[in-house]
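Suppose you are handed only these lines of text.
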Amino acid sequence: MTTTAPPSPAAVARKAASGASLDLRRRPRRLRRSAAIRDMVRETRLSPDAFVYPLFVCEGEGVRREVPSMPGVCQLSVDRAVAETSAAARDGVRSVLLFGLPHNEDKDEVGSPADDPDAPVQAAVRAIKQEMPDMLVVTDVCLCEYTSHGHCGIVDGDEIVNDATVERLARTAVSHAEAGADVVAPSDMMDGRVGAIREALDAARFEDVAIMTYAAKYCSAYYGPFRDAADSTPAFGDRRTHQMDPANAEEALREVALDLEEGADIVMVKPALHYLDVIARVKEEFGYPTAAYHVSGEYAMLKAAARNGWLDEERAMREVLTSIVRAGADIVITYYAREASRMLR
Ligand code: PBG
Ligand code: ZN
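From them, the structure of the protein bound to PBG can be written out as follows.
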């Protein structure tokens, strides 16, 4: 056996230049040679139009408390939430998603503050709509921020009772609509809630209020920081009996189909990054406006790495948001909405 020395780089270059064994009629690199041509052939474009900016609204006045696990994200009293929304609007953000943090002593077994017209979400909706009528205001509809036990529904023993919860959710959605919400977003994963909310909204003459449903919401480790922010960690047990198993994709399609049958206008997949396949399939299969939620843990990971100098935050943020849109999301709910809108200006 004879061994031959590998060809020198110069020899390789000579051979390539002669075109001997290369087919170079197609050279994809031609379209990558300058910024102008790269920008021209780009398939996925980010726009602030697609972003929804989540805000945590608490009681009090003049409150702006940063959430330690979510740098840049704060619990805001209504006045500060209005200020943050108008600052975001100046950056190009056109939609906010509101979560409520009532006083702990107001929380109870059935989540009474959820449909209280004077609770933080309802008050913030009124204040934001009054100051910025064009801001699209979306409200999160769930009970976990309002129950003493932190579960998304009414609890009997260790069971989250579906049908009784749905009734509370429908009332909550109507109360958000009464405050002036444009879109309600049920995040609880109870069965039949989209239909019940649609019916309740219509009965109260809110037929123009849209439903953005958390249709395929997975039982994810990546909601950890959110539960600090919203003070909604369950006191016992977990959310496995209502949120989806991360292993399932066909089931996500069934969930989406049900919510659409029940009258959903926009369907959401959550979290985003580990479920890009699900986003793509939902968009492809149904062709409906599709939202993806880049959740608290996904945001926290990037922030932490950036703060350690381990990656370039702006590049990473752009890449992440682009990948979510490339997968098929029309709408991206992200704590980066302000920063990304500023970057895109
Ligand atoms: C409430 C709700 C959660 C999130 C949105 N709505 C938390 C949960 O289900 O435990 C998560 C958002 C995030 O992590 O950014 N049901
Ligand atoms: Zn919940």
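What can we learn from it? The radius of gyration is 24 Å. The pocket of PBG (ligand 1) is lined by residues 140, 142, 144, 152, 187-188, 223, 226-227, 239, 295-296 (CB under 6 Å).
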